[in-house]
Amino acid sequence: MNGRTRLLLAAVCGVAVASVYAGQPVLRPMGRDLGVPVDALGWFVAAGQLGYLAGLVLLVPLGDVLDRRRLIAAHLALVAAGTAITAAAPAAWAAFAGLAAAGLFAVVVQTTVAYTASASPPAERGRNLGIVTSGVVIGILGARVVAGLLADLWGWRTIYLVLAVLAAVLAVLALTLLPADARPDASRYGQALRSFGGLFARPVFLGRGLIAFFLFASFGTLWSGMALPLAGAPWHLGEAQIGLFGVAGLAGALGAARSGRWGDAGHARRVTGIALALLLVSWAAIGQLTWSLPLLIAGIVLLDFAVQAVHVSNQHTLTAAYPDRTSATIGAYMLFYSLGSALGAAATTAAFDAAGWAGPTVLGAAFALGALATWALSARATPDAARRPDARPPSRERCLSPAVPDADSPPAR
C-alpha cells in the first residue's frame, strides 16, 4: 500500500462521512427553503444517522463476502446519488430520502477501513489505519467549515452538489486504481451476519466497543453543544465563525495520525490509556469557554487528538484480533461509535438548558471518565495476532498456558 493508495482511501472516508455531517451548520436555511419548522430541523441529521445505522448492520458485513474494491466503488456511486437527490430536492420528503440514502451507503467508510487493514502488512497496519482514518476526522470537522462557507456564497444546495461530484469521481478512481480484493475463502452473507452478532460475546471486542461508546459520547457533547454558548453572551459569534473552530479540531486529530505507528510497535493499550487521560484533562480547558477562547481552542486540540488516537488504537487492536472478519468487526465496533455520538448530541442540549455550559462540561468529563474506567477494568488479554509482528512465536509451554498475552506485552526476545 503506497502513499497514493492511502491518500485515495483517506479521501473516500472524508467525502463519505461529510455526506452525513455536512448539513449540521446549515439546518436553518435548509428548513426555510423546504418548509420544515424549527422544531423538526433535527430530522435532517437524523435521516442520515438512521440510514448509517442500518448500513452498519446490513451492508458492512458484505465486505467479508464480496470484493471490497468493487464494494467501495458501488457504495460511493450510491452516496453520489443520495447527495444529488438532496441537492435537487423540491420538497422536504425528497431531502429526507436523499439524506437517508447517502447515510446508508456512507458506511463505505467502514469497508474502506477493513480494506486498509486487510491489505496492510502487519508491521504497517497501524500506520496505514492512522492515515486513512484521518480522512474521517477531516470529513466530520472539515465539513462544518466548508459547508458554512459554501452556504454563505451559493446556498446550502451547493454543499450536496459538490459532495455528489466528489463521490462520483472517487468511485471511478477506486475502481481503476485500487488493487483487487478477491478472496476465494470468503464467507456467505448469512455467515457474515452471524459473525457480526457473535462479536458482542467477545470480551476484547466489548471492551474496545464500550471505550468507543464513552469516547464518542464525549466527542459529541462538545461538537453538538459548543455552538450554543458561543452564539450567546459574551461572544455572539456567527455560524461561519463557530465553524472555524473545526480547524482546531482538525489540528488535534491530524496530530494523532502517528498513533497507528505506536500500535504497530505494540503500544496500543498504553496509548489508549494516556489518550483517555488527556481527554479527561481537555475538559478542564473546555470548561473555561465562558471567559477564555484560547483555553477553549487548546481544549479542542487536546480532545480531538485524544479521540483520534484512541479510535485508531481501537481499530488496530480489533482488526489484528479478528483478521478473518475485519468488515464485520469494524461495522459492529462503529455501532458503539454511533450510539455514543447520538447520546452525547442529545444530552448536551438538555444539560446546557439546565445548567449553562457547566452542564455539558461535567457531562463530557463524565463520559471521558467512563472511557478511562472501562480501559482500566477491561481484560488485558488479546489474541496473539494483536502482538507486535516481530515477536517470535510462543513456545510450546506458552501455547498450553490458558493465559493469553496482552496486545502491548513486550515481545519475546
**Secondary structural class:** mainly alpha
In N-to-C order, the SSE pattern is: HHHHHHHHHHHHHHHHHHH
- Largest sheet composition: none
How helical, in percent, are the residues? over 70%
The termini sit apart by: 29 Å
Task: Report the C-alpha radius of gyration, rounded.
Answer: 21 Å
Point out poorly predicted stretches: 381-413
Shape: globular
Query: What amount of the residues lies in strands?
Result: under 5%
Report the total helices: 19
Q: What average pLDDT do the residues reach?
A: 82
Number of strands: 0
Would you kindly provide a brief summary of this structure?
By secondary structure, the protein is mainly α. The protein contains 19 helices and no strands.
Top keywords for this entry?
413 residues; mainly alpha; 19 helices; 74% helix; globular; disordered C terminus
Could you explain how this protein is built, in words?
- It contains 19 helices and no strands.
- By secondary structure, it is an all-alpha fold.
Topology, element by element:
Layout: H1 3-21, H2 27-34, H3 42-58, H4 68-87, H5 92-105, H6 108-119, H7 125-154, H8 157-177, H9 189-198, H10 203-225, H11 227-231, H12 239-243, H13 245-255, H14 259-264, H15 268-286, H16 293-321, H17 326-355, H18 358-377, H19 396-400
Helix pairs in contact: 1-5, 1-6, 1-7, 1-8, 3-5, 3-17, 4-5, 4-6, 4-8, 6-7, 6-17, 7-13, 7-16, 9-17, 10-16, 10-17, 10-18, 13-16, 15-16, 15-18, 17-18
